[in-house]
Every structure is written in C-alpha cells, then in structure tokens.
Specification:
This protein has 2 domains: 4-129, Alpha-Beta Barrel (N-terminal domain of MutM-like DNA repair proteins); 142-276, Helicase, Ruva Protein, domain 3 (Orthogonal Bundle), CATH 1.10.8.50. The relative contact order is 0.15. By secondary structure, the protein is an alpha+beta fold. Helix 6 packs across helix 7. The mean pLDDT is 95. Strand 6 and strand 7 form a beta hairpin. It has a 4-stranded antiparallel beta sheet. It has a 4-stranded antiparallel beta sheet with strand order 2-3-4-8. Helix content is 25%, strand content 21%. The protein is globular and about 60 Å long.
Length: 283
C-alpha cells in the first residue's frame, strides 16, 4: 500500500502536471468505484489544488466540490504520458482533462476508493474525521508525539501504523523507523521512556524526509505519475531484507564507528510482517 512518501510524491507530481486543468469526462470498467451521480458531480470542474491527508489524495475542485482518492493496496495514479509496463496496465478509471491528456488509476486488485463531496461535508467523512496528525509536517513536535504514544498500549510497530494515532506510516516505514531508532518492533509503548520515544520521533522525521526525496518505495506495485518506480527501495535498511546482514555492518552506514554482526529477522506483529536486527533492536 502506498504510504506517506508515495502519496506525497504523487501529490507533488499532480500539482505540477494537472493543477488548473478541468475534468471533461470519466470512464471506468469497474462501476463499483463510483457512486451514482459521481461523474455528474465532478465533470466540468476545475482542479484548484491537490493535497494530502494521511494516505488520502484530496482534490479541491471548483464549485465547492472535493474529490478524495485512496489508492489502497495496489493503486497508483498516472498523469499525462506514462511508462508502459505491466504494473501500469491495470487501468480501471480514467479522468479526461481539458488539455487533452488523462489522469488514470491503475489498480490490480480494484480496492481503491474514489468519492466526491461538498466542501462543507468534507470534515465529516469517515476517511478523514478520525485521522491522526501528519508526522512529516514541521508543526508536528515531540511533545505531541509523546502524548499520543503515551495514550496507547501495545507493540510500538502496531501503534505507529494506527492511522488514528499518527497518519501516513505503514509497514515499510515503520520497520525503517524502528531500525533507525534501535527499538524492537514488539517493544511495549508503555515501557518506552522519553529518551527512546525521542529516538523514534527523530527517526520518523529522518526516514520520511529521505523517502519523499527518493520518491517512495516500489518493491511492489507503486509507481509515480509517470509510471516510474521510486528509489527508496534501493536504500531500504531492513524492510524485506530477511537473512541479510545488518545495515550497520555495511561500510559508511550513518557514519557508524561500531559495526553490528546481526542478521535481519522477520516476525509477525498483529498479523503484519516486521523486519529488524536482533542485535541492534533488543527487546
């Protein structure tokens, strides 16, 4: 599933490519995506701006309308002209644009969500009203993070991925964050002191910033709006690296003076995989 860095990359691309254009028509071969009357609501509307709440892509449209797209597990948006390859070929929705180009949703498993509402009703959407703060924003400070985590009990990896606690972090970046912070994914939130929470907070800021810069992770279906893969997958520390040597053994990792001889392990946390170094991230 695209997480905060992938969604932010998509938002940045769309603002550059299609902001200011109008939607002239819609096509789909999977009507379950769209509620009755959806096409009528947004056809002819100008795209004022595109932004993000958590993993949701928000389109501010003219006429007081807002469109929300959540790409879910296998979805990604393509705009203008894009690379033709298999992962970009599962196109089930196309928005025709006033410059003659298209915005398309490629979604292998057809789980993506698309809806439109009046601006006045937007904050009451179930997808939005209970979502946690955005950890990538400058205004998200340690004190707020500490309060949010202290309210929860359970494995830290599960809590980091809870969208009603903080938004946008999923399986990939939770692993990367916890490795960077040297915190075991099963560590109980109620046993983490302020020092360890600060390590996690700093790692969140560092990893998300780096992943956005590298345009996200494409170990599975995600592609950017040109149909191209992101590059964070090449820089992954532990995610999907079971059986490999700890990154701290690799020369030059974060300027580490003390190297680790650990081997990356994979366990389950609340039904999801978790990758970690048992030496660096002791429970």
């Amino acid at each position: 599933m695209p997480e905060l860095p992938e969604v932010q990359t998509t938002v940045n691309d769309l603002n550059r490519k299609i902001k200011g254009l109008s939607i002239t028509g819609i096509w789909t071969d999977w009507p379950k995506y769209l509620k009755k009357g959806f096409a009528k609501e947004i056809t002819g509307k100008k795209i004022i701006k595109i932004w993000r709440i958590g993993k949701n892509i928000i389109f501010d449209l003219s006429g007081g309308k807002i469109m929300l797209i959540h790409q879910k597990m296998t979805g990604h948006l393509l705009a203008g002209k894009w690379l033709i390859e298999k992962v970009n070929s599962y196109i089930h929705v196309v928005f025709f644009l006033s410059n003659g180009e298209k915005l398309a949703l490629s979604d292998l498993r057809k789980f993506a969500k698309i809806l439109a509402v009046d601006k006045k009703d937007f904050k009451n959407l179930e997808d939005i009203k209970n979502i946690g703060p955005d950890p990538s924003l400058p205004g998200f400070k340690f004190d707020e993070f500490k309060k949010l985590i202290n309210k929860k009990r359970g494995a830290i990896k599960k809590v980091l991925m809870a969208q009603n606690v903080i938004s946008g972090i999923g399986n990939i970046y939770a692993d990367e964050i916890l490795f960077t912070a040297k915190i075991h994914p099963l560590a109980r939130t109620e046993k983490l002191n302020a020092k360890k929470l600060k390590q996690i907070f700093n790692a969140i800021k560092k990893i998300l910033k780096k992943a956005v810069k590298l345009r996200g992770t494409s170990t599975y279906d995600y592609r950017d709006t040109a149909g191209k893969p992101g590059h964070y997958g090449e820089a992954r520390l532990v995610y999907q690296r079971k059986g490999e040597k700890c990154p701290r053994l690799r020369q030059g990792f974060s300027g580490q003076a003390n190297k680790c001889d650990g081997i990356i392990k994979r366990i389950k946390v609340d039904g999801r995989s978790a990758h970690f170094c048992p030496i660096c991230q002791k429970l």
